[in-house]
Write a structure and sequence with these properties.
single chain; alpha/beta; six-stranded mixed β-sheet; 9 helices; D-Maltodextrin-Binding Protein, domain 2
């Protein structure tokens, strides 16, 4: 196979995957792109990537795709980095601004609002980078590493994974590894071994990225307790439920 082009998320929650890809030795001829979740889907669409860690909210945009890994970005409890931040309680919120970086969080908060919270706010999508400077807004969905600093600035913080779990009793899947074309068996196996290597070498991950870790976060706890990587049967069922709401 030609050079394997891989698009992955640039956030802390993906560091174990990236570490495995770069350090395990299971992959040799590859090119790795690191970007915000929404751009992973775009790179796969354009053909620039063979494999991408795609937000599940973007999956309906693909006519056909293959989930090529038994690992994902998921949660079985509060994820702490996908939040609705507000200075008003849910029933008082009139407008919610949506983080540019992810389709999944935007769609998840709309599902929660409509089907579970029973509120009907207006939604407006922010431009790139605006979520970090959203303090003047009534309510904002923010994702990723920036939430470690943002959550203390608001009176109310609603964990979107925790809210989904509370109402459905199921885990949540934020992103899955997909390809648009079938991959050779050896490539697929090597890729999954690389991901497994990273997940099971957390000391190495934290040491390797020590200078890039958010300073106001317990990164080990976040990666080992708040993020759940196996794409097991419960998560596959939860993913199907989420897609059915779309």
């Amino acid at each position: 196979m030609k050079t394997l082009n891989i698009s992955a998320v640039s956030y802390l929650n993906t560091y174990p995957f990236v570490y495995g890809i770069q350090q395990s030795g299971y992959l040799s001829d590859y090119r790795l792109y690191l970007e915000v979740p929404s751009m992973c889907a775009e790179r796969l669409k354009s053909g620039e990537a063979d494999i991408a860690l795609v937000p599940v909210g973007a999956l309906p945009e693909f006519k056909d795709y293959n989930i090529i890994s038994e690992y994902c970005i998921g949660a079985v409890r509060n994820v702490i980095t996908v939040l609705l931040l507000s200075d008003k309680p849910l029933d008082k919120i009139k407008k919610i601004y949506l983080d540019f970086d992810s389709r999944t969080s935007a769609r998840l908060v709309q599902i929660l609002a409509r089907s579970f919270w029973k509120i009907n706010p207006l939604f407006e999508r922010l431009k790139a980078g605006q979520a970090e400077d959203a303090r003047q807004r009534e309510a904002v969905v923010a994702i990723g590493d920036k939430t470690f600093a943002l959550r203390g600035r608001y009176q109310y913080s609603y964990d979107l994974a925790g809210e989904w779990i509370k109402y459905t009793g199921m885990p949540f899947v934020f992103a899955v590894w997909i390809s648009l074309k079938p991959l050779p068996k050896d490539v697929k196996e090597g890729f999954n071994k690389a991901l497994n290597f990273g997940i099971n070498n957390m000391d190495g991950v934290l040491d390797f990225y020590s200078t890039r870790l958010p300073k106001n976060a317990d990164c080990r706890q976040y990666l080992t307790e708040n993020i759940s990587y196996p794409l097991d049967q419960a998560k596959r069922e939860a993913l199907n439920l989420f897609l059915s709401y779309l």
